[in-house]
Fold RAS p21 protein activator 4.
Amino acid sequence: MAKRSTLFIRIVEGKNLPIKDITGSSDPYCIVKIDNEAIIRTATIWKTLSPFWGEEYTVHLPPYFRTVSFYVLDEDSLRSEPTLIYVLLTWLKVKCVDGWMNLTEIDPDEEVQGEIHLQISVLGDGDIPRKLCCQVLEARDLAKKDRNGASDPFVRVRYNGKTYESVVKKSCYPRWNESFEFELDETLSDTGLLSVEVWDWDLVSRNDFLGKVLFNINKLQSAQQEEGWFRLGPDKSKHSEYEGTLGSLRLQLRLRDEVVLPSSHYKPLTELLSQSVGSQLNGNWPDFIMLIDETTTAESRQEVANNLVKLFLGQGLVKEFLDVLFKLELEKTTEPNTLFRSNSLASKSMESFLKVNIGHLLLMNFSCVFWYYRCAGLHRQQTESDIIQQSSSLLQSYLSELLTSILQSASYCPLLICQVFHQLYLRVQERFPDPEYRVKFIAVTSFLCLRFISPAIMSPKLFHLREKHADARTSRTLLLLAKAVQTIGNMDTLACCSKEPWMVCLQPAIQQGITQLKDFITKLVSCHESEDLELQTRMSLQCGTMEKEGFLFLHRTKDKCMPMTSPFKKYYVTLSKDTLSYSRTQHSKSVNELNHWLSALRKACSHNTNTMSCYHPGIYKADRWSCCHQKEKSDSGCDKTRHGVTLQEWYDPLDPDLEAQLIYQHLRSVQQAMRDKYYMLREQQGVKEADSVRGKFSSLLSFCTVIVN
């Protein structure tokens, strides 16, 4: 049994941010920290005080996490360090946040981090005067306050007007190993406090506060002794006089805590779900998937679809699951033009299927940002007719290149996607035998173009295809291209020209694009029968095993490093499920490269029983560790390894137990609705229930109470 916490973060936008540049504007971006560890960095939005990011992240958290901090910074190429605008510190006491949050000015006495190792005991008994003994052992992960990247921390222990201090120079991992004794004042047993403060010592300027811990003497006398690592807390909160006037940040946060049971507890549920999409389905009672479809609300449909897709991917039955949804959707659809256009469970599941694990590879092969570097110069100082003609010509060339890239990518499409689209193609053809062969193509394009390619064209940053958002002019061009692709996906040039007059000049290109897209779909749905089967299988396997790749700087050993040269060498590193390898050359980019690497390494080591619990964040040089000043190279690490916080990525391995738990929670919430729907469907069908059928469904409904046992 394990507790798993997941935080969904959407950084939407900011407004009324303070001016930081001489131009009267700012270049803001956001940093998100989990317990003072930087996890996320958004793209920089240039020259604006009301930036829009619209970036979404899913972060898996350890159950002991405390805070989430949002920093808004101003990027400036003329300065080596970014300027901090203001920070919003959110203590997650609530499960959900959705709205505008005021930014507040940073108080240095509240920006603390790290832990301190203490042993506190009460000595003496009977006639002997009792003493309070505080042994200060060490601290770790203290804030860096000096220019040398460290601090000069000193500890200040205070009780009943008496103070002791001890300092360690140039370390964020100091080891004091000192004991301080105080005469215990019995008259202050109820109100007396022992204060342990940590400060950064400065010779010229004032000392910097690093954090403190307070202990109630009355509780200490009851326990007699208390030892452990204690998190340093901030000084008393100071209300900023500028609060509410420094701009605001619009956030959407949702924290989900789940207790995941051993796999055996979910076996009945996974078997039931597998049978509902397999050949073992009993046709005498309503389909389990149909009941889920009928009782899932619009608010929870996307999450339920994600969980079901991931669970069936793990069971190897996602194609069969989607096929069941295709049939249910087709049975309810009477008008072909509305097929898969609503936010039904089928539409949401197919959308999730394209995004989860395998869709990213398809997008990369589409090369749908091929024009991105060149489409920012559509408008120049020319006459209006010249601008229109030039813009039309450029749009046609971009559209032509895009469609060519899509057509060429069919052979590289993962095999599973080809099989699912083939099944969809056949189901629609059976339901709507269109003599013009249009409906089956539109069914495929409703997912491929409207829900996948077009959104990726409009927002390549959100699909991890670009590091930064496009500027205003480029965004306009991408929007026009996305609309053109949607028009081609609808396969109706006349209707689009009447609604969008600017598309009239693109009509020949759109008509040609419709022909090309039909060829692409025909090739896509027949790929599993082609000579490229081996290539497709290989691409599918690559998609399932690749976890992380990119450039890292590796530290060379001392004897291989020539004098006056850098001890680091740049290598291209590849991390898979089983291996970590590197080579000298390759190309790769990532906006959060360090955080993605840390996250990938933590996931790869999640099942490693030999993972160390502590390590040295510094280097061993001049016969001592630079971080904690220990002299023995074999001494235990001074900082704990952080393996709890990870970013959810498209290549993450599936977690069937977690998905089963989430589906179970959903079934539990709609149990009564499923019961009512079941009996209503039976009455409509006019089928007399047999005892075995009733017993089988009763077992299903009682599953929610049995599984927790």
